[in-house]
Design a protein that fits this description.
Blueprint: E1 11-14, E2 17-20, E3 25-26, E4 29-33, H1 49-56, E5 61-66, H2 68-71, H3 80-94, E6 99-104, H4 146-149, H5 151-162, H6 164-181, E7 187-191, H7 207-225, E8 233-235, E9 255-257, E10 260-261, H8 264-269, H9 276-294, E11 300-303, H10 313-325, E12 330-332, H11 360-363, E13 367-371, E14 374-381, E15 386-393, E16 400-403, H12 406-409, E17 414-418, E18 422-426, E19 431-435, E20 440-448
Parallel strand pairs: 4-5, 4-12, 5-6, 6-7, 7-8, 8-9, 10-11, 11-12
Antiparallel strand pairs: 1-2, 3-13, 13-16, 14-15, 15-20, 16-19, 17-20, 18-19
Helix pairs in contact: 3-6, 6-7, 9-10
Length: about 450
Amino acid sequence: MDATVGADAELRLGRNGFQDKQGRRVFFRGINIASNAKFPPFIPFEDPKWWDMLARWGFNMARLTLMWEAIEPRPGQYDQVYLEKIVRLVDGASKRGIYILLDMHQDLYSRWVGGDGAPDWAFPPDVDPRNNSGIEGFEGGMWGMAYSQSDDIKRCFTHFFQSQELREHYKKAWQQVARKVMGNPYILGYDIMNEPSNGDILNITGEFENYYLKPFYEEVILAIRKIQPDAVGFVEPNMYDTYFSNLTHFNIDGLVYAPHLYNALSVTFRFNMPMEDMVLGELLERLKDKAEELRLPIFIGEFGDTWKKPDRNGPVDDVHCVLEEGFTNCAYWDYSVKDVDAWNEEDFSIIDQNGKPRGLEVNVRPYVRRLNGAPIRQSFSSYEKIYTAEFSGGPGKAPTVIYMPASIHYPEGFDVEVSDGRDEYHKDLNELWYFPENEGDHWIEIRPKGSSEPIPVA
């Protein structure tokens, strides 16, 4: 559990991300829940034991998949049973100190064209939900190509973004969610639409992103703020322009830039590219540059790799290394506790088909959760089990908090070296607390007990 459980968990959003009431930067190692919620009954799990596992593995946030179809199965009719189940999921996470990012998910517009998201009544007049091109010819790992190859899917997106009536329905569906969870300090924010697509609307110089998508985001978050005034909106670029977005400054505050980080070639064709870490590093820099241009903090809403590959741990380790070096907030895709590859044969879950964990050696890592200072860099070697963190700051009452996966990476114990000050290990919380003594730059290094002497960080 996080040390904030049972305490004041409220956060505030600043230019550089989230902070707690003690002024510490809060960093998130999250996970998406879940691919198996993309089809009826649209609930990833109900047994709270699955939250216990995530808390034990150090995940302090989850991006929770919601479906418009599940919220509003008929126009203006809202499924209160589904909404109450969402509330129970949020409450279960909150009791374990796990923050929730609510994600109105969609892929390919709707499950009625081979994806998930919109209800069957939200289709354009010229597309039949029961008889359409959908993902025909692009099933399985190639499903993403249907965004550009299916005329019917493109028509669906075009119609949605040009239809004021549908956008009003979408806003009211979000308001139903906000009414249910308002007041819970563990609600991190609202991811307004997963991986939006421009359909047939041009986006060569940002026409779609700036004249359709951006106003849509602003309208929706303002509608949510009628229910929850301090709601934080998470916004994504046009899906096909993720690394080349033309979005310009938003007209409202309280937003987070939340693109996804995938190497589309290696994920789609299920092979490991040479120098994968360098490719991912370059892609991440593009995303961070756009966030800086928009003057928004960045949060990588999805990253991951498929279990269909002969070696999946390597690429996942690569992307973790790239993300943690710059203290980048992120959420892994995904955590399905059943039907792990039922959606278009995707298989990213850290739970296998038999309900057993997999890939924990690369997905569960030490990381700074709360930082009393400014980040410089951090790193973890999943092979040598050596973790280092550097930051600048001064002494204070509130410690810098590092999650410690002792049972996974340090079963025989660990040694800690610090530049100055002292550290405290809180085994019950799986946390290491660090209290610097001096003003300036600090470093902390953790390694397996009895390993060779550490080399101080310069």
